[in-house]
Amino acid sequence: MVAVSVRNLNKTFGANRALKDVSLELGRSEMVALIGASGSGKSTLIRHIAGLIVSDKGQGQIEVFGTSIQKNGALAKGVRGHRREIGVVFQQFNLVGRLSVLTNVLMGVLGQAPSWRTWFGIFTKSEKQRAMNALGRVGIASHAAQRSSNLSGGQQQRAAIARTIVQGAKLVLADEPIASLDPASSRKVMDNLAHVNREDGVTVLVSLHQVDYAIKYCPRTIAMREGEVVFDGPSKLLTPEFLQQIYGADSIELLSPEERRRKAEGKSAKPIPERDAEGDLVLAYAAR
User: Fold this and answer.
1) Which residues contact 86 (CB under 8 A, 6 or more apart)?
2) Does residue 258 surpass a pLDDT of 70?
3) Torsion angle, CA of 180/183/188/192, rounded to 10 degrees?
4) Where along the chain do its domains lie?
């Protein structure tokens, strides 16, 4: 069963060809990593699948769960209704800082509840319970009444994931969700995406800048370079040597900061216990 079908997608920004004849398919309930160095086209592809931007005129088509999202450079009719099945987690959290965490998560019911009710922030007891359950699943129910701006970056991303749960999304597109997070917070966000994938059967496409997370969490990886798909296969094949073949000198961008430092220094790693931004005890690594 196909969840996402992309065919011959091209996108040009001025003189820059951001996507070059991209074609791919995602199966239902897959969790797939999308990797690539900066400027490879990952975010542009995700925004196309979400129906946020359109391809070049007369170029390509995208279907999600058998329904057309866009074709030949134009959005399909009724695409607003189909977006309810697509949850997007952005790199910069995309929460309203002055609103409570609970209210931000309740925004997942937009498009399901009457617009007048959501406009005035009126939610039913059942909707609030759904939101609290979702916050419980991502481990931040105790923060429901706080302003979202008071949360750490990792907690804000988990709130964004909770919003997709309330939305009832069948497809989650996560665009660099851990790019600005520390390693421990990154693991928590990826754990939550993996849980949604396994427990709810949600298809997940997650754009990542560090290949070690792709290998750990995603059985399949799609690699992009300069707007083209250059690899689509098992994540376990993404060895440093293989990445070097694909990306050359740019392959260093796809390594974790710790791995980059160790590689540059040619030193092994020594685990050191410390606490992350959320106060949890984790193991950091220092070269020795």
Assistant:
1) 49, 50, 51, 64, 169, 170, 171, 172, 173
2) no
3) 60
4) 2-255, 256-288
Identify the H or E element spanning 231: strand 228-234
d(CA 232, CA 178): 22
Neighbouring CB atoms inside 10 A of 185's CB total 23
Q: How confident is the model at residue 120 (pLDDT cuts 50, 70, 90)?
A: low
Strands (E), 65-209: 67-71, 74-75, 86-89, 171-175, 203-208
Tens digits of residue pLDDT in 212-254: 999 999 999 999 999 999 999 999 999 888 998 999 888 888 8
Look-up of token digits 């391809």: 55
Interatomic CA distance for residues 88 and 108, integer angstroms: 11
Q: What CATH number does the domain located at 2-255 have?
A: 3.40.50.300
Q: Report d(CA 34, CA 53) in Å as an integer.
A: 18
The sign of the torsion formed by the CA atoms of 4, 7, 13, 16 equals positive
State mean pLDDT over 134-157. 96
Mean pLDDT of the chain: 88
Global model pTM greater than 0.85: yes
In the 8-state DSSP scheme, what is residue 58? Answer: T
- Which pLDDT tens digit goes with each residue over 198-214? 999 999 999 998 899 99
Selection from 125, 100, 123, 102 nearest residue 113 by Cα: 123
Q: What is the DSSP code string of 59-87?
A: --EEEETTEEEEETTEEPTTHHHHGGGEE
Residues 6+ apart with CB under 8 A from 60: 6, 7, 8, 9, 10, 22, 70, 71, 72, 73
